[in-house]
Amino acid sequence: MCMNFSSKLLENAVNEFGKLPGVGQKTALRLVLHLLKQTKEETFSFTNSIDQMKEHIKHCKVCFNISDLEICEICASPQRDRSIICVVEDTRDVMAIENTEQFKGLYHVLGGLISPMDGIGPADLTIESLVQRLDGADVNEVIIALSATMEGDTTIFYLYRKLKDFPIHISTIARGIAFGGELEYVDELTLGRSIMTRVPYEHKIG
Amino acid sequence: MCMNFSSKLLENAVNEFGKLPGVGQKTALRLVLHLLKQTKEETFSFTNSIDQMKEHIKHCKVCFNISDLEICEICASPQRDRSIICVVEDTRDVMAIENTEQFKGLYHVLGGLISPMDGIGPADLTIESLVQRLDGADVNEVIIALSATMEGDTTIFYLYRKLKDFPIHISTIARGIAFGGELEYVDELTLGRSIMTRVPYEHKIG
Prior knowledge:
Chains A, B: Keywords: DNA damage, DNA recombination, DNA repair, Metal-binding, Zinc, Zinc-finger. Chains A, B: It comes from Rhinopithecimicrobium faecis. Chains A, B: InterPro entries: DNA_Rcmb_RecR, Rcmb_RecR, Rcmb_RecR_Znf, TOPRIM_dom, TOPRIM_RecR. Chains A, B: This is Recombination protein RecR. 2 copies of one chain form a homodimer. Chain A is of the alpha/beta class. Among the domains of chain A are: 8-56, Helicase, Ruva Protein, domain 3, CATH 1.10.8.420; 80-173, Dna Topoisomerase Vi A Subunit, Chain: A, domain 2 (3-Layer(aba) Sandwich), CATH 3.40.1360. Chain A is 42% helix and 12% strand. In chain A, the strands form 2 sheets. Chain A has a 4-stranded parallel sheet with strand order 4-3-5-6. In chain A, strands 1-2 form a two-stranded antiparallel sheet. In chain A, strand 5 (141-144), helix 7 (150-163) and strand 6 (169-172) form a beta-alpha-beta unit. The longest helix of chain A is centred in the first third of the chain and has 17 residues, at 40-56. Chain A is globular and about 65 Å long. At the A-B interface, helix 1, helix 2, helix 3, strand 2 and helix 5 of A face helix 1, helix 2, helix 3, strand 2 and helix 5 of B.
């Protein structure tokens, strides 16, 4: 869409907003006009929060999760179980698993998934650091908690080959029917697998 | 939704993004993580464009449209017809009308619509400036081009009462069936009005 901007400053801001994922030109213009209507303090608080984050945010030296400190709160906590590491794609997955309150071990954030289509190979992820982290450490189990997509499966397969010689238990999170999911609407692959990987009734949660 | 942020800096940025209209917490997190993956220069270019805009943008002293200069390009142009003024809600409407290339007059940007529900009264808009602008100026016609909503209609009614004593033609943009619109899907009010305000065939455009 061609837009006739009455101001170069406005146009620049709209173009910058339009670079964000899922934000088109019309949405960008709406957001920029919203910021224009705010007070200077409110808009400065918006841009400042981004600048501050970009300037000062760190990645934990142990697990590579986003952190304000060199070592993140989870890795530094004496209450976490150091014998179990959960491998995830990014910080959103850490947040999602922390929300469940079902996991008390440590994490390892890969920073992405292997995706040849997007030019992301194993070297772009923190896989080598995971191998070094396991070397000599007192870890019993690695849980691989990645998305059930082609990229996720590729990454799981690569990780498994890298880790299989360590004296540790390697597991992946269970796949099956979601709680509240109705059987007739579940896709065939998931339903078939959930029958093959059925569990004894006494193990049932909930 | 409760989010367990691993970083206060990240949380601040997500909260600031979440204040934008139509941006929820999950979208805010996605956008912030996108900015985190960019280079420092790219992110700085984003925040700088907003800061620069907020610092230096002006409203044209004549028509109140957003502008980089004291007097906007349209008001300053010798090629525009100064005898006709089109009254619009905001800069987006100016852009939309400019895109049609059907209007060669000047604009007057109200900066909103009268909306008692949102606490916006006539004094919050640039109506008084429009009255002063018409006073003594060589203007033949004012076209009121506002949205066909309750707030738009209220504002048109108020404007009409303010302007009716001036020796000028007051018109509003035509309402009717959009080009490409199929008759059976048009709402009753629009269809009824479009029959009442029918035009002779020779006036038909296109």
